[in-house]
Design goal:
- By secondary structure, chain A is mainly beta.
- Chain A contains no helices and eleven strands.
- With 114 residues, chain B is an all-beta fold.
- The radius of gyration of chain B is 13 Å and the shape is globular.
- Classes of the chains: A mainly beta (111), B mainly beta (114).
- At the A-B interface, strand 4, strand 5, strand 9 and strand 10 of A face strand 4, strand 5 and strand 10 of B.
């Protein structure tokens, strides 16, 4: 079953603008991860936020987690053309310590 | 540190034929995953190994898909016979079970079934 779901499905912005994408999930989790996938490539881990954290930063990335709303957001500040990619949230499944990925947000950053 | 290696990168086969994909995870990673990613969708887990044992294969279509990791290192995913709807990218990933939740992905094997 699908645990996390990102929105919007697609987002197009100008270089220099901020990009915000959201992830909603259904069951309680102990951590949530964000991954990036460039066209034709594998996924790359961006950031992990634990259930006892509300916000986490990594360079131009800012992730928030609201466990009461079962949602997370990924903010990319001062976007660049190189940020053009699909972004996925991943949440743990109950068994086996594996992770469920949402359908992703396709971000296009126009120069 | 070498990443997750996959081969072949691209494969085109006719329906009802068979195909095999190979994966070599990051050295020392006990956990290995195979994901299927259909164009425009997120990756869907097919099977998870811990060393040479299967942890989760609940979403593997066992009538046509099989996977093994006999020596607990590299792994092979096979599809026989292939259907048109198997056209997808097959992503192998690995994780160091003891030091974190980060999953490291290979570049994927692109399968087109015609």
């Amino acid at each position: 079953s699908q645990q996390g779901e990102e929105d919007p499905q697609a987002l197009s912005i100008q270089e220099g603008e901020n990009a915000t994408m959201n992830c909603s999930y259904k069951t309680s989790i102990n951590n949530l991860q964000w991954y990036r996938q460039n066209s034709g490539r594998g996924l790359v881990h961006l950031i992990l936020i634990r259930s006892n954290e509300r916000e986490k930063h990594s360079g131009r990335l800012r992730v928030t987690l609201d466990t009461s709303k079962k949602s997370s957001s990924l903010l990319i500040t001062a976007s660049r053309a190189a940020d053009t990619a699909s972004y996925f949230c991943a949440t743990p499944r109950r068994r086996g310590q594996n992770f469920v990925f949402g359908p992703g947000t396709r971000l296009s950053v126009l120069p | 540190e070498a990443g997750v290696a996959q081969s072949p990168r691209y494969k085109i086969i006719e329906k009802r034929q068979s195909v095999a994909f190979w994966c070599n995870p990051i050295s020392g990673h006990a956990t290995l995953y195979w994901y299927q990613q259909i164009l425009g969708q997120g990756p869907k887990l097919l099977i998870q190994f811990q060393n040479n044992g299967v942890v989760d294969d609940s979403q593997l279509p066992k009538d046509r898909f099989s996977a093994e990791r006999l020596k607990g290192v590299d792994s092979t995913l096979k599809i026989q016979p292939a259907k048109l709807e198997d056209s997808a990218v097959y992503l192998c990933a690995s994780r160091d079970s003891f030091s974190g939740n980060t999953i490291y992905f290979g570049e994927g094997s692109w399968l087109t079934v015609v």
